[in-house]
Amino acid sequence: MATAFSSDGEAVLRRELGPAAAPPAPRGDLDGFYEMGRAAAFVRDGGFRKVALQLPDELLVDAATVAARMEAETGAEVYVLGDTTYGSCCVDEVAAEHACAEAVLHYGPACLSPCRKLPVLHIFGKQPLDIGRCAEAFRELYADRQSRVVVLSDVVYAHAMGELEQQLCPEYPNVIFSRVVYGDPPAPALPGEERQFGRQFLVEAPGGLQDCAMFFVGTEGLTLTNFMLTWNRCSFSSFDPTTNCGRQETLNVNRALMRRLYLVERARDARVVGILVGTLGVAGYLDVLQHLRELLRRAGKRSYTLAVGKPNPAKLANFLEVDVFVLVACAQNSLLDSSDFYRPVVTPYELELACNPAREWTGNYLTDFRDLLPGAYGHVELPPAIPAAEAVPDLSLITGEMRATHLCEPPASQLPPSTALACRDQTNALAEISPAASFLESRSWQGLEQQLGQTPVSKAVQGRRGIAIAYEDEGREQS
Hints:
Helices cover 24% and strands 18% of the residues. The protein is built from 13 helices and 22 strands. It has helices at residues 9-14, 30-33, 36-46, 63-74, 93-98, 131-141, 161-168, 222-230, 253-269, 285-298, 313-316, 348-355, 435-441, and strands at 50-54, 77-81, 103-107, 120-123, 149-153, 175-177, 179-180, 193-196, 199-202, 213-217, 236-240, 245-248, 272-277, 302-306, 324-328, 345-346, 394-395, 402-403, 420-423, 430-433, 466-467, 470-471. The strands form 7 sheets. The protein has a 5-stranded mixed beta sheet with strand order 6-5-10-11-12, covered by helices on one side. Strands 2-1-3-4 form a 4-stranded parallel beta sheet.
């Protein structure tokens, strides 16, 4: 029986493959869909000699054609990133640097998280949108012409928002269209201005954003879920361009929040926390890693920092000593559904709710980890440490056991509890080790080891044939 940690290899071998799905790009208009002119101008104006093309899986069918056209028009060497290190919505600077690329052309849906090093040009792809049907669905959902509505869209439909605005604004004077922006804005935000997830819009309603409804143009997915959790005080409706249907979103946001708050309670009970590095390209990820390590150290919890690429249940099940994981990723990929995982996976904001006594639940949900750093609007300073005898006792809502919730501060004259000194070799050289590393060294399986000089040299021989559950040289049970 297949489980979350293993699969039936025989079922994979017997599976029949159907015809490949049609690519979403219009086959006759590659120039318009991939905006070849704008991309070539970006490469020529920047003087880039090596450029990386990053495309999602569904657009890789056009990768060779686009790369050849770019090389012919710009004279630059073009490399196609066939597989992303993490989510395809993030710019994969790690893979681009392996090819010594000087810039990245990112195609398809994007989370618009600011990058750290390389110049990036986002080309979303102009997916088709029936603007007339979209406007009609908007009128059906909002019969009152004085409704205050903020129109959001997936980035692949941003090209059509100008025409939709021309159709709706004469009828709806209070409708607000968001704009897609790249990187950090140069000027500070104005009163009533929202800048999140690469979207920017100005709300002039007396009660602010909570007096407005939200209308989303795009398919159901992580983007819509992220918006609904962040702006959970607003009612949402959507229009799906693939079905040309509009609907009032009936997803129970409170139920989703209850699930996330349950994970916060699990994080409070945890004694060992694994910090998953889910991005190496988003600006500020090193700062938030240090912030989380300090937070866990002050909370008296042991932490491991793990870089596992794209997390899945099989990978994380290797770390049985970890009670809960925290995923440092872009805002769009941080809300990981961990129902199939052996241990829960929380966001940095949820870990702060669990470990920072000064942070209280206000109804606002933060999915961008940069909002938690010092200087950001969502940053909350850690309170001073108090003695354990003066700490208010707390009871776990899951296990029913008593737990410590106060912050501790080690004496300045001693080494932090996460480090120690040990003799490294016969020369009495000292090396700094940690309890986390010592624990991993005590495990029976420690990964692949070189064992230089210990393995005898032998000629190559023919190996086993077949699959792992039934090699050809293994005996068969007689029925």
